[in-house]
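Model: You mentioned two targets. I'll fold them one after the other.
Researcher: Yes, keep them separate.
Model: Target one:
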Amino acid sequence: MKISTKGRYALRMLLDLAEHQQDGFIALKDIAARQHVSKKYLEQIVPILNKSNILQANRGFQGGYRLVNQPSEYTVGSILRLTEGSIAPVACLDFEPVGCDYRDECITLPLWQGLSKVIADYLDNITLQDILDNYKERSIDNYSI
């Protein structure tokens, strides 16, 4: 499984909003500058996040975006499912029941199901807040005089 640029940039954008949530609405140009990401690319990601009620938008002079909920309420798994469509390691697991005519005889199916469970369990138990807390903790540990 490879996470696309869309998934990675969406995650970075949401983390930026989480980190700056006390600043109110944040302009895309500011996020783009801080994250070294194209504003045009972020503009393509925003509709996906807006449609899922993750972002609140405000137009006008003080316009921009902010998270609807607290960073602790958004998991990496849910964000990646929005942007990637699936986080399954193999295509046959994108369907329930497994979408393969060979499923009853597939010797590797349990392997892929186990891997899919590990991936989902891991990503569904990490929130935006967890990532921010981890980053702050690492930053404190790297402090030197």
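Model: Target two:
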Amino acid sequence: MEALLKNISNALAGFACVILVLVMLTTFADVLGRYFFNAPVTFAVEMIQLGMGLLVLLGLAITTLERGHIAVDIADTLAPPRVRRMFALFASLCGAAFISLIAWRLWDRAMNFRRDGLATDVLFVQIWPVVALMAIAAAMAAAVAIAQLFIPALTKKTPEFDVDMEV
């Protein structure tokens, strides 16, 4: 199970990398066309908007798997280890619930967009498949968060993500 979740998370992160490159190339072409040729890419704004939404949600599973979410540990330093474990469990439960809520609401929005036939303004690209993909990516992140509650191997941070940031 943990290998499957890791593979899915890595595949979603790889897909996010492809989307990021496409967003960068679209932005580059739009800026180049706008300022040097006075001919911007007409569909750039809507493609970048859809791509950015995908980027956030496609990266959510790997971030959850690596426990890379932002955490404030003011109370952790003062609490005994047993209380810290309870804090961690509560945070994991809240994270799983919140990500599940995001996935559910995105799926609901995708089905509403499908029913309404909502499309982008310039290219008339249907929006619901993109939002449905966002919902599936959020559902995978929720599955990782739920699995972390039951599979001890998934609760360990990897060394590259276990570095405290100094402010």
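Researcher: Noted. Anything on target two?
Model: The chain has a mean pLDDT of 86.
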